[in-house]
Structures are given as structure tokens and as C-alpha cells.
Amino acid sequence: MPLYRRLPKRGFHNIFAKKFAILNVGSLNQFAEGTTVTPELVCQEGILKKLEDGLRVLGQGTLEKKLTVRAHHFSESARKKIEEAGGTVEGRELMAELNPLISSIPHVLNIPDLRKRLLFMLAMLAVYRMGSWIPTPGVDTFALQEFFAQQQGTIFGFLNMFSGGNLSRLSIFALGIMPYITASIILQLLTVVWPYLERLSKEGQLGRKKITQYTRYLTVGLALFQSFATSLALEQTVSEPPIVPDPGWSFRLMTMLTLTTGTAFVMWIGEQISERGIGNGISLIIFAGIVVGLVPAILSLGQGLPPPLGFGGAEHLYGCSTC
User: Fold this and answer.
1) 42 against 220, higher pLDDT
2) Do 93 and 124 sit in the same domain of this protein?
3) pTM of the predicted model as reported, rounded to 2 decimal places
4) Can you tell me the distance from the alpha carbon of 204 to that of 214, in angstroms, rounded to the nearest whole number?
5) 57 SS3 class
6) CA 176, CA 264: separation in Å to the nearest integer?
7) Are residues 162 and 273 both part of a single domain?
8) How many CA atoms lie within 13 A of 139 on its CB side?
9) Which of 49, 60, 70, 263 could cross-link to 223 by cystine, CB 3.0-4.6 Å?
């Protein structure tokens, strides 16, 4: 059969669309003054035969009675006419019933296994954030932060954002999860051109475990290389005071050991969240790093804009011109 004959003639059907039963405000005059009109009461009175996925109230007709109307959706004209008649509109609670995600949020903590996984995920993310404030030995953190303050808007600022500020502090998690992501991408590309990895990818769970093991080894190798390059770059950076007070092989080896160990630990945290927590651990670690820098970025943007669009600088925040 040709392709044009297999395509839908009337468009595609949205399986997630909600179908509402329609009720006009003019039909509400059948109820007595002060009645609380609910979707169930509308069906009991025979005004509607079926509610479908909910009740939508439209503004056709006039309303002469003071009623409390509960529905899943109101048009602007219907809402206005009900309120002009002295009634009230209630729809937020019923709309939550249509969305299983919203209605299930309060019940999350009532499920023991789900509560345990959620608390474990939060605990692991807290450990990751605490480690981001432990500096690498041999680095003047104040001089390093001054250097990164001058690099805003460059590739260094971009990498620092993804690390959650770890790079500007050169914490033990400065490399973050980026070596693991790079290793995963490399092995995925090699799977296409290397027959051995291609066979492993088709062997099911056992083959995937083997590829994961190779990814960890490659992550450690990339972390060693990146940490060594980072130590060299810091030693050669000209600043006053110097970022590295005592350069040399002792500093390079200490940096390689510290940053590589931190990367391996972050990789372990991500795998533990994926296995014993909720969601993908690697994605959550990246998300946590970005969210941490979101509020300072918004404040920095607001201070850079002139009033009334932004904060207009420190004098508008603190009420003085000498801050």
C-alpha cells in the first residue's frame, strides 16, 4: 500500500487529550438559590448524561441565581457571569483529580519503598553538594575565584556552571561527572566500528555490564589526563597572588589523585542513585549542579539590568551609593 494511503485522513489522534462534557451557564438556573453544583449533581438532575473526562462550563446564556459551581474547567465568560450573579467558582481541586501526577504527590511519602528511595536520593545529592566545598590541596581558592570571576561568559564559565561551581573552587569534585559522560560517548561510538564491542552490546545484560566496566576504566583514565592538564594550566596561569603557591610534581600528583578519586566517587554516587534511588543518577547530579548556580545567575542578571527592570546594582539593593 502506498505511503499516502496509510497516513491518517483526518489528522493524528492525541491519546492524552481530555474530553469534557459541556454545560452552559444558562442551564444552571434549574438549581435553587445557594446550591453547590457539582458534576455528579448535574448528572443526577438529568442535565447531562455522561461526564466523559470532566465538566467544562461555557458562558452561553444568562445566570440569575447565586450558586457555587464546581467543574474541571471554566471559560472566562462563564466565570464572569457566575461571579456577577454573586456565586463562586471552584475548579482547582477537581482539575487536580484529572492529573494523576498532581493528585499522587501528597501520597508519595505514604509508600515505604518509594519514601526510602526518595530519601536515599536526597541523601546522596547532599553528600555530593557537601563534597563540592572541600578544596583540592595546594591551591589558593581566593585567587582562583578571582580568576573565574574574570572568565564569565567564556568556556571556563560554561564548564563551571555544569560542575555546580566546583571548578571555580577546584573542589575534590571539580571534574564532576564529565569524564564519565565523555567515556560513555566514546564507547557508544566505538560500538559501531569495533566488532568486539558490537558483539558485547548484543549479549544482553552480561554484555552491558562488561561495557559498563570498560566505561569506568576509561573514566578513570580520562580523569587522570584531565586532572594532570588542569594542574599544568593552573601552574602556568599568571595572577597575583598566584593560584598555585608551590608548583611542581608534588602538586601535580596530588591534584591527579584528588580529582580522579573525586570523579570516581561522583560516578559511584550516580550509579547508586540509579540503582537504589529515583531516576537517572547521572542526570540528577548534572541537574543539581545547574540548579545550585541558578539563583546566583538570576541575581547577577538582575543587578546588571537598569531599574526598574533589574536591581540596578548594589545601591538599589542596600539603599546606598557607596556599597
Assistant:
1) 220
2) no
3) 0.59
4) 16
5) strand
6) 9
7) yes
8) 30
9) 263
Question: By the 8 A CB rule, do 281 and 125 touch?
Answer: no
Count of the separate structural domains present in the chain: 2
Secondary structure (DSSP) of 216-253: HHHHHHHHHHHHHHHHHHHHH---SS-S-SS-SHHHHH
Q: Which domain holds residue 175?
A: 112-292
Boundary of a domain, candidates 101, 120, 141:
101
Query: Which residue reads 598566584 in cell numbers?
Result: 242
The H or E element spanning position 2 is none
Maximum mean pLDDT: which of 126-130, 153-157, 158-162? 126-130
β partners of residue 171: 135
- Same-domain check for residues 239 and 258: yes
Using pLDDT thresholds of 50, 70 and 90, give the confidence band for residue 165. Answer: low
Handedness of CA 255, 260, 261, 262 (dihedral sign): positive
How does pLDDT run across 139-152, given as a tens digit for each residue? 887 887 777 777 66
Residues 25-64, buried b or exposed e (16+ Cβ, 10 A)? bebbeebeeebebbbeebeeeebbeebeebbbbbbeeebe
Alpha-carbon gap, residue 102 to 285, rounded angstroms: 24
